[in-house]
Amino acid sequence: MPETTAPSRLGGTALTLAYDGRTVAEDLSVAIPDRSFTVIVGPNACGKSTLLRALSRLLKPKAGTVVLDGTDIATLPTKQVARIVGLLPQTSIAPDGITVADLVSRGRHPHQGLLRQWSRQDEQIVAESMAATGVTDLADRAVDELSGGQRQRVWTAMVLAQQTPLLLLDEPTTYLDIAHQVDILDLCARLHEDEGRTLVAVLHDLNQAARYATHLIVLCDGRVAACGRPEEIVTAELVHQVFGLTCRVIEDPESGTPLVVPGARRRSGA
Q: What are the alphabetically sorted keywords of the record (predicted)?
């Protein structure tokens, strides 16, 4: 895997984050290494999605600063941010009746302007994004008629069509069966490895995070419990500390990355 020692284009300093009137993090600082595949993990309600929303400027911190390319992200024009940072939120609502092709095409809007209208290149990028996520055959279907898994892949295609150097993905494998989960994570890995994009994803599955991440951020109670390469930080002690789970951490026989094996349940009568 590529090294993640590059400087950070995106990060937050001394952040206080609140959601629905509840403070979920105070004095939280993170740095996303450039050209990394960073995965954020942690228990439920520890602030993972809230942090991602703050990094994308979707949520304004109560205190602290989110910095993009050395500048407070709050001071940058919206369209400029949209050309650099793409976001797949945890829940997305499509306009009534919009087709898959039309929704994916909206990913090209940040690149439009008075001097640049829809082009053949835009058309090609939309087609490639749909093909990469396996939704080409759904192009003429209404988004609100699709299954949860199909909609998730369509929204992912829209974010890909935005063609930003930074991609933020909040639980991109939600609603997907195991085969499509692997497809999406493999796609993310290719975007990172082949195109040099910086990805930040929130995942629930620690083993998937350890397999795909080049940089792992482990949150607990609104603070960073550990960060670094998965093979350097994922230990049985850390998993117990953060998740309260007794386990063994062994080498994944397929990828060589850390594999968390929960302790055996004591059977009745044993």
A: ATP-binding, Cell membrane, Ion transport, Iron, Iron transport, Membrane, Nucleotide-binding, Transport
Identify the pLDDT of residue 3.
Answer: 44
Q: Which domains does the chain have, with CATH numbers?
A: 8-233 (3.40.50.300)
Which pairing describes strands 37-41 and 215-220: parallel, antiparallel, or unpaired? parallel
Per DSSP (E only), the strands in the chain are 8-19, 22-33, 37-41, 63-68, 71-72, 85-88, 166-170, 198-202, 215-220, 223-228, 247-251, 258-262
If 0-12 CB within 10 Å is exposed, 13-18 middle and 19+ buried, where does residue 231 land?
middle
CA gap 162, 111 in Å, rounded: 8
N-term to C-term CA, the chain: 44
- Nearest Cα to 223, choosing from 32, 93, 43, 59? 43
Model-level pTM greater than 0.85? yes
**Could you report the per-residue pLDDT of 24-65, keeping only the tens digit for each?**
999 999 999 999 999 999 999 899 999 999 999 999 999 999
Rounded distance, CA 33 to CA 36, Å? 6
**Under a CB-based contact definition with an 8 Å cutoff, are residues 65 and 28 in contact?**
no
Long-range contacts of 189-195 (CB under 8 A, 24+ apart): 189/37, 191/160, 191/167, 192/2, 192/35, 192/36, 192/37, 193/2
Alpha carbon dihedral 126, 128, 132, 136, in 10-degree steps, equals 70
Of the candidates 90, 43, 71, 51, the one whose C-alpha atom is nearest the C-alpha of residue 220 is 43
